[in-house]
Write a structure and sequence with these properties.
The chain is of the alpha/beta class. The protein contains 19 helices and 16 strands.
């Protein structure tokens, strides 16, 4: 289903002029709304924000100049073309000062009007793109680094799926690069020149998230003083990336399902269906299969999202990629901070390759950024990394416990336990400081403590149960 064209609001008290402009605008593929007075125009703008306004100046009740001043005062940024039979140079200058983008005298030249409208629509698209660009800053790089078998398999799947409109579900632990993957898929797709819109489904309350996705009409709720377009509307023609989809409330899952099935929706408080042409990418670090079985996630929505599934491996399972990733972040943060840091010492790189990286690529990026800032010369040393045990004197027994019975996962969990214990001991049991020392979010740090059953008392002492209580859990279960 193709979405309707951009909305043009024609404001003129002359019915003949309105009909003429209506015909011209529809010939350009636009939708048209009409108002006969300035007050009707402001009401129409509050109800449905247009892409362009064609505004007459001399009208009863409220003239066009007052409409321009009101829009400027309320920071409503809509390209406005003044079309009037009563024009002068002084009037044109005043209208342009009040925010008009063009001034046309009646009777107008149809070709010039078409050029002016197209130019205003391009300006509207530029304004929207600039606003949406801020949402995409976190995913500004479309380069996926890595040559390990697991990451290459994920890249190959993404490349095959990028040229289609199929929904893609990105799975993996926090920090594995799901948003970078989503942005790269968009860049590889035919929609690359259209918006890439990121929506974090866990960062907002249910009602705010609903408004963010679907938009709202004026008066839909307290504080809704004018109509607002949602992400599904502003991303028309492009890609919407729904991050943390596993945390979306059930009522919104039902509305999202309709968007995926019918490519249309209503704004909050509205009844008019709005068509949209979007491609949806979704990501989560949750176990959606388990959430479906537990009734926390709709099965029909899961099947709609799970058309193409790409699982991103944790960094501990792709250690061969650590040198390339570390060098990439070194170059990036050295440029951003204007520091003359050029290389990573061999001993420091060894530590990077040995560390378990519970925070994955995001933690590695934070570690390198911190090292670039703290580095006194051109080479990052182990001391600059500030990793647990990186610049501590040798201890006996070895800080990496050796599990006499068991396999790889048992030893990895034992090492992770030791890393957390060391951080807790160095910060006297302060969770916030320990998480900051490791470059982790406090919530994730506390989840690791709970998983590994590490507890601290009020005096800062740390205790841990025997190794076999949790160490037998496979490391891959951290994705949940």
């Amino acid at each position: 289903m193709n979405a309707a064209g951009p909305l043009v609001l024609v404001v003129d008290d002359d019915p003949t002029a309105r009909r003429m402009l209506d015909v011209r605008m529809r010939a350009l593929g636009c939708q048209v709304a009409m108002a006969g007075t300035g007050r009707e125009a402001l009401t129409a703008i509050e109800r449905d924000l247009p892409a362009v306004i064609l505004l007459d100046l001399q009208m009863p009740q409220m003239d066009g100049m007052e409409v321009l001043r009101t829009l400027s005062r309320e920071a409503v940024d809509v390209p406005t073309i003044v079309i009037t039979a009563h024009g002068s140079i002084d009037t044109a200058v005043e209208a342009m000062k009040e925010g008009a983008v063009d001034f046309i005298l009646k009777p107008f030249d149809p070709q010039y009007l078409e050029i002016a409208v197209r130019r205003a629509l391009e300006r509207r698209q530029l304004l929207d793109s600039n606003r949406l660009f801020r949402d995409a800053l976190a995913a500004r790089s479309a380069n996926i680094l890595g040559e390990s078998a697991l990451i290459r398999a994920a890249i190959q799947t993404a490349q095959k799926a990028s040229g289609t409109n199929s929904t893609i579900l990105l799975l993996g632990e926090s920090g594995t690069g799901k948003e970078v993957f989503a942005h790269t898929i968009h860049q590889w797709s035919p929609r690359r020149d259209k918006p890439f819109v990121v929506v974090n489904c866990v960062a907002l309350s249910e009602h705010l998230l609903e408004s963010e996705l679907f938009g709202h009409e004026k008066g839909a709720f307290t504080g809704a003083h004018q109509a607002k377009k949602g992400k599904f509307e502003t991303a028309n023609g492009g890609t919407v990336f729904l991050d943390e989809i596993g945390d979306m409330p059930l009522p919104l899952q039902t509305k999202l399902l309709r968007v995926l099935q019918d490519h249309e929706f209503e704004r909050v408080g509205g009844t008019r269906p709005i068509a949209t042409d979007i491609r949806v990418l979704a990501a989560t670090n949750r176990d959606l299969d388990g959430a479906v079985q537990a009734g926390r996630f709709r099965a029909d929505l899961f099947y709609r999202l799970n058309v193409i599934r790409i699982v991103l491996p944790p960094l501990r399972d792709r250690r061969d990629d650590i040198p390339a990733l570390a060098q990439h972040f070194l170059v990036r943060y050295a440029a951003e901070t204007k520091r003359h840091v050029r290389r990573i010492a061999a001993e420091a790189m060894d530590l990077l390759e040995q560390y378990p990286w519970p925070g994955n690529v995001r933690e590695l990026a934070n570690t390198i950024e911190r090292a670039v800032v703290l580095c006194a010369g051109e080479t990052i040393t182990p001391a600059d990394l500030a990793l647990p045990g990186a610049h501590l004197p040798p201890r006996s027994p070895d800080p990496i416990p050796v599990v006499e019975a068991g396999g790889f996962h048992e030893q990895i969990n034992a090492y992770r336990r030791q890393v957390l214990l060391t951080a807790m001991q160095r910060t006297n049991g302060n969770h916030t400081q320990a998480a900051k020392l490791l470059g982790l979010h406090r919530t994730y740090f506390l989840r690791l403590l709970q998983k590994l059953d590490i507890r601290s008392d009020l005096n800062g002492g740390v205790r841990t149960p025997p190794q076999d209580t949790e160490a037998s859990t496979p490391a891959s279960s951290d994705a949940r």
